[in-house]
Amino acid sequence: QTTRESPTLNPQPLDAFDRGYIRAVTDKEQCRAFMAKLTGRPHFSCVVGSTATAEIPNISAAGETPEKRRYTAALDAEFLVHGKPLSLGEIPKNPLGPPSPVVITKAALEALGIEPLIVDAGSVVQAKTPRLELGLKPGNCITTGKALALPDDFAERCRAAGRLLSARGDWAVIAESVPGGTTTALSVLEGLGVDAHGKVSSSMPGGNHDLKQEVVAKALKAAALSPTATALEVAAAVGDPMQPALALMALEASLRAPVVLGGGTQMAAVYALMAKFVAEGGAGDLENVAIATTRWVAEDRSADLAAIMHQITPRIPVFAAWLDFSDSRLPMLRHYEEGLVKEGVGAGAAAFAALASAPAPTEQGLTTAQLVRSIEDIVEKIS
After folding, report:
1. Which SS3 state, helix, strand or coil, does residue 364 take?
2. Helices 154-166 and 242-254 sit at what angle, rounded to 10 degrees?
3. Can you tell me whether residue 191 is helix, strand or coil?
4. Helical H runs in 88-240?
5. What are the 10-residue block averages of pLDDT along the chain, 383 residues in total?
6. What is the pTM of this model?
């Protein structure tokens, strides 16, 4: 179980936007100041990738079986772009029934009227969508201590992609789909010296902390990282391909536009890499970066996103889209309230963007109730 000695999640309403729909997870005034930057039209990108870490039995519920988890990122991407899966017959789902959070992301993007860009950072199964290819390989299991084989021009490829993302709209939402990603997040955080034991969220009820820590301990032992290891060395040893790619893309984009990282504790690891890159002299504007996640991460008693972020920096704004499926007409969505699914595919950030800026029939803007109804409609169409 996570300890609560450091700052805990105590989300506070942001009066100007939310009427309870968006809440500040970290400092309210910093969040308010960042929200003031988010004018104009957002755009949305999803960085997909694979890690063999996801094939460890019982490590993840982002797909019913280890074999099906190889398809999860591709199916999420296909559903975002086409509104239906193509590589298999259905979208990913938790073994206990809840559908992938891609249904939330899809509804939010439809409310915004924007099309997603899929960025492939190294996938076992490539999505049947238009996509931006970084030309990278899927990740090995982190227990090898040699998780990623990165090309010499890795940083240049990722920064070029970041410039493209920043040119697509007025502000950027950059999300991910990587099964097994909370385990690789834990390993990267600990590899960077952040105490994240018992604090990362999970697609498994209760957080699955013991198994995650066992895997991460093996990874860090095999990697034998030097105390002076660089951000890229840590990621290459014990990370997944999305993490360093998204970190560099987001840093480059932040030089030109506000950037919202879409996710929970996986994005804490990405931000930790970003901060390390900047400390090493890399270009980027961390004051132009925030994280947006879901209520289920913000209220996750088996994790502590705020405590992780406070160790990295006390200054980053973290938001939560305050969706609630308790009264949903669909039992499979009500399972979200049992902690069976919490985040993924930028669900929280897409909902955050839609609730903050989507056009709506009334002057009050889009409501959470309207967004939940749209999500239910999407789920019913694919059920």
Report:
1. coil
2. 50
3. helix
4. 102-112, 154-166, 181-191, 209-223, 231-238
5. 43 57 91 92 96 91 75 95 93 74 96 96 97 97 98 98 95 96 97 96 79 97 97 98 98 98 97 98 98 95 93 93 95 90 94 82 73 96 87
6. 0.94
